[in-house]
Amino acid sequence: MAGNELSNKIRRLRFENGEMTQQQLADRAGVTRQTIIAIEAGKCAPSLPLAFRIAQTFKVPIEAVFQYQDEEA
Amino acid sequence: MNKTKAESWICFPLGLLCFLIPSVVAVFIAYDRGISPAPVLMFTGIVVWGGLFWLFPFIEKKVRKGQKKVSFDERDQLIHKKAVMVAYVALWLYFVAACVITWCIVGPHGSISVNVMPLTLIGGLVIFTSVQGLASLIQYGWGGKDGGK
């Protein structure tokens, strides 16, 4: 995802939140299911507002959903 | 398959059909009436292309009226923007090539038929539509049911 710098735990959080489906998460985040699929698979990076909406859906901080790994570090 | 990808699947072959259908009509009319096929091709091409692409969103909006499901989000918007950019690049390259090749064939003192301009316009429409659809599909990854790979 974005040069392997950004990873996420969306899939695990979905299962921990009552086995939420991708469609349910998409509805709550205001995007399409295909976008959630692409984000989970690391094919695209979400915008900041979308990242925050996803974190608010799971009621966790944004760092618990998305992790940034600096390649140089 | 979301709305944008469905439109891309329609745009790509439809752009080609917008050339084939008017071509067949133009050849038929030209053969039947003995007139030049170029203006017929231009007219039918613009009618078919304009009718399909200007009416399609209107009809699609009426059909989807009342649907609350999100069908176009930020990712679709980014993909659409990049696809349009690629299509415009292809369009400019096509027009430059058309001008340069024509000049190379007829030379600086030659002349071309007046029908070349409408044919060039139709070609530009086909190029733009097909390239935009193709670029969208490539970005979506030719996805299957889920639209992702």
Overall description:
- The complex is a heterodimer of chains A (73) and B (149).
- In chain A, 52% of the residues lie in helices and 8% in strands.
- Chain A has 73 residues and is mainly alpha-helical.
- A two-stranded antiparallel sheet of chain A has the order 1-2.
- In chain A, helix 2 packs across helix 3 (33-40).
- Chain B has 149 residues and is mainly alpha-helical.
- Chain B has helices spanning 3-33, 37-63, 74-106, 116-140.
- In chain B, 28% of the residues are buried.
- At the A-B interface, helix 3 of A face helix 3 of B.
List keywords for this structure.
heterodimer; A: 73 residues; mainly alpha; two-stranded antiparallel ribbon; 5 helices; 2 strands; 52% helix; B: 149 residues; 78% helix
**Strand numbers in spatial order across the main sheet of chain A:** 1-2
**Helix-and-strand structural type of chain B:** mainly alpha
Bin the strand percentage of chain A.
5-15%
Largest sheet of chain A: 2 strands, antiparallel
Distance between the termini of chain A: 17 Å
Termini gap of chain B: 13 Å
- Uncertain parts of chain B: 145-149
Low-pLDDT ranges of chain A: none
- Quick one: how many beta strands of chain B? 0
Apparent shape of chain A:
globular
The largest sheet of chain B, given as strand count, sense and whether it forms a barrel, is: none
How many distinct beta strands of chain A? 2
Rg calculated over all Cα atoms of chain A: 12 Å
Chain-averaged pLDDT of chain B: 75
What is the structure about, briefly put?
The complex is a heterodimer of chains A (73) and B (149). Chain A has 73 residues and is mostly helical.
Fold topology:
The complex is a heterodimer of chains A (73) and B (149).
Chain A: E1 6-8, H1 10-16, H2 22-29, H3 33-40, H4 48-58, H5 62-65, E2 66-68
Antiparallel strand pairs in A: 1-2
Helix pairs in contact in A: 2-3
Chain B: H1 3-33, H2 37-63, H3 74-106, H4 116-140
Helix pairs in contact in B: 1-2, 1-4, 2-4, 3-4
